[in-house]
């Protein structure tokens, strides 16, 4: 099991100078694993997560910080043994100054990790794209159910972080969480905990202040569940920021307000950006002539969609543009930075904007911290060729100029209007405007299945199923299938035929992107022997092939967290059913219309000569629904997925 145990946003700013003795006073624990029955759904449980951070500000010498972490995990099942393989990323210019790891067997014998099982190396691209990141890898010995693994490390760095945040819950339960933040008195700070009633305890230790925060019996994270809330909304987490630092005879604003919090990112985006764009020479298509500012934005967005397909929202600061182009795919941060540069070359004014996403990460504008606004988009002000201010999110590959994705509706952005370093100063100043994100909402995520069903007199039935996707569904599908081999495609088609009860695969078309914007399509053909029921007078064609993800009721029997529908989602199925010659339509499925708080749905049928056209549609309603409504939601989806008549009947004309 791959375990990333260190928040890089934190490590990027850690330690030096003080020894690990500052972290004396280990928390006493009963190092015995509890009975598995106490945690029936978990392969392991944290007995302790102990995090300690020391921030030392020096007026005349280098400031530094230390990060100490101790994890004690009880292994409950064979699956839990994967927690014995640990990876700890840290900055290449930092160092691990204290490290220990051991396994305590069920009978109390302690086994220290061997030096030959501890490695330090550069992080791989799957962990971090920054070549300046290292990772310590180690494996704890003799781990089995009933064992307890206990490891700790202290990282020392020559830099001082301006702020950081971390989740408290993990993928397994936590019996005790202990956090200690300590710093010198010339560090002015703010701290905040979310989604918890636990309180901070403040202490004055003379030369330093200390904050303590403790929690017990924290359930496992539910973030992996389908239709779960984002972690920042549902789980306990904390954030810390340095608001000001005293240096000699001056006070430096760090995260006192948003302007100071974002000054260095703004400077890197607008002023000190040569390194990011070095060597980047894209091959652009010639835009039509004439081509005004809006046309140039559309043309460059088309380049971004075509040559730099979206690979995830990503994090700051992104990889250099040339490396991105060489890879042939880009994160949202990278796409935005590259588009800004291209627009600048095309004489189109655009400003970077920091924002958040509706129903994903709530923005706390009262707690300035760069990570608090993780999304990077563009603001294109009114100018010749652009009739009104517009926001452009390159992460939305199906949005045209003037359109924004649903996840940005209702959000606000901080737009960088100007970055400059006043004469005689060393720190840049950023002028930011807080603006509501506006634009026509591209709110529809849709999938369509079109079935052409031909029935023989024998009951054998041929299916041709065309699968279409639009909007975010098409974007996700393009990303998913980009690396598929022909064998993987065939396996997908065979599973689709089996899921829709359509017999055996006979043909698979190519996957096509229509219009390069927001539409994908492919067709699967199959034959099912004796699929339709036949007697001397009638043929009954079952409608079991009509099936969407919502027919599978993707909710567990017991739900403890809210059910979240983030975006409006539509699924439409259209079937043309053709009887053999000599048969006429005699019975249609009963119509269905539903309109409840969760979705609208309908099933309609229309006779078209000897054939019948059946259309079934469901459209979900965005919202956060309490877990207590699970059964009501289940009943609503049952009504959608179980129409009273699931067949079409044709009778012989004889």
Task: Give a verbal description of the structure.
The chain is mostly beta strands and 654 residues long. It has 3 domains: 8-256, Immunoglobulin-like; 260-442, C8orf32 fold; 445-652, Jelly Rolls, CATH 2.60.120.1130. The protein contains 11 helices and 37 strands. The strands form 8 sheets. Strands 23, 24, 25, 26, 27, 31, 33, 34 and 35 form a 9-stranded mixed beta sheet that branches. Strands 5-4-8-2-1-10-13-12 form an 8-stranded mixed beta sheet, with no helix packed on it. Strand 34 and strand 35 (611-620) form a beta hairpin. Helix 6 (293-307) runs antiparallel to helix 8. The longest helix has 15 residues, at 293-307. The radius of gyration is 29 Å and the shape is globular. The protein starts with 7 loop residues before the first helix and ends with a strand. Residues 1-21 and 126-130 have low confidence and may be disordered.
């Amino acid at each position: 099991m791959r375990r990333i145990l260190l928040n890089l946003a934190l490590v990027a700013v850690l330690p030096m100078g003080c020894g690990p003795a500052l972290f004396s006073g280990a928390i006493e624990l009963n190092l015995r694993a509890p009975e598995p029955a106490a945690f029936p759904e978990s392969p392991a449980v944290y007995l302790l997560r102990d995090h300690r951070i020391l921030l030392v500000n020096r007026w005349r010498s280098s400031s530094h910080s230390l990060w100490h972490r101790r994890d004690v995990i009880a292994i409950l099942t064979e699956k839990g043994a994967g927690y014995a393989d640990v990876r700890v990323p840290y900055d290449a210019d930092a160092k691990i100054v204290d490290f220990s790891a051991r396994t305590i067997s069920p009978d109390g014998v302690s086994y220290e990790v061997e030096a030959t099982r501890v490695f330090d190396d550069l992080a791989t691209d799957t962990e971090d794209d920054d070549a300046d990141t290292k990772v310590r890898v180690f494996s704890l010995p003799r781990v089995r159910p009933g064992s307890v693994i206990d490891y700790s490390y202290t990282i020392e760095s020559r830099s001082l972080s301006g702020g950081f945040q971390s989740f408290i819950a993990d993928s397994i339960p936590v019996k005790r969480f202990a956090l200690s933040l300590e710093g010198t008195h010339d560090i002015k700070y703010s701290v905040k905990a979310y989604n918890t009633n636990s309180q901070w305890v403040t202490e004055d230790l003379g030369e330093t202040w200390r904050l303590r925060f403790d929690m017990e019996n924290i359930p496992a994270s539910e973030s992996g569940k389908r239709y779960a809330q984002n972690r920042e909304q549902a789980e306990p987490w904390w954030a810390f920021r340095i608001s000001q630092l005293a240096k000699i005879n001056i006070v430096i604003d760090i995260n006192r307000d948003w302007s100071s919090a974002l000054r260095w990112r703004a400077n890197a985006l607008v002023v000190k950006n040569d390194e990011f764009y070095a060597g980047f020479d894209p091959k652009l298509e010639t835009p039509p002539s004439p081509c005004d500012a809006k046309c140039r934005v559309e043309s460059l967005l088309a380049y971004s969609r075509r040559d730099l397909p979206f690979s995830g929202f990503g994090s700051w600061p992104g990889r250099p543009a040339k490396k991105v182009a060489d890879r042939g795919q880009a994160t949202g941060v990278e796409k935005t930075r590259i588009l800004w540069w291209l627009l600048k070359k095309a004489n189109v004014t655009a400003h970077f904007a920091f924002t958040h996403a509706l129903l994903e990460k709530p923005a706390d504008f009262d707690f300035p911290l760069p990570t608090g606004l993780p999304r990077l988009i563009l603001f294109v002000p009114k100018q010749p060729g652009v009739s009104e201010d517009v926001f452009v999110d390159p992460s939305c590959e199906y949005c045209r100029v003037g359109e924004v994705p649903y996840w940005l509706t209702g959000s606000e952005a901080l737009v960088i209007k100007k970055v400059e370093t006043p004469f005689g100063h060393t720190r840049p100043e950023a002028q930011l405007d807080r603006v509501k994100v506006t634009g026509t909402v591209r709110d529809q995520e849709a999938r369509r299945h079109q079935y052409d069903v031909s029935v023989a007199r024998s009951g054998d039935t041929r299916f041709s199923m065309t699968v279409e996707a639009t909007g975010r569904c098409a974007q996700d599908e393009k990303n998913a299938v980009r690396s598929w081999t022909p064998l993987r495609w065939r396996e997908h088609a065979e599973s689709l035929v089996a899921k829709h009860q359509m017999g055996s695969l006979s043909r698979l078309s190519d996957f096509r992107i229509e219009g390069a914007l927001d539409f994908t399509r492919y067709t699967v053909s199959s034959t099912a022997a004796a699929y339709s029921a036949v007697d001397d007078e009638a043929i009954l064609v079952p409608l079991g092939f009509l099936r969407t993800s919502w027919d599978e009721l993707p909710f567990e029997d017991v739900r403890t967290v809210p059910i979240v529908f983030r975006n409006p989602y539509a699924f439409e199925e259209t079937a043309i059913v053709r009887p053999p010659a000599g048969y006429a339509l005699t019975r249609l499925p009963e119509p269905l219309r539903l309109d409840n708080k969760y979705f609208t749905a309908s099933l309609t049928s229309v006779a078209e000569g000897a054939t019948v056209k059946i259309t079934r549609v469901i459209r979900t309603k965005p919202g956060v629904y309490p877990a207590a409504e699970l059964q009501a939601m289940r009943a609503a989806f049952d009504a959608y997925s179980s129409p009273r008549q699931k067949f079409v009947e044709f009778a012989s004309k004889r």
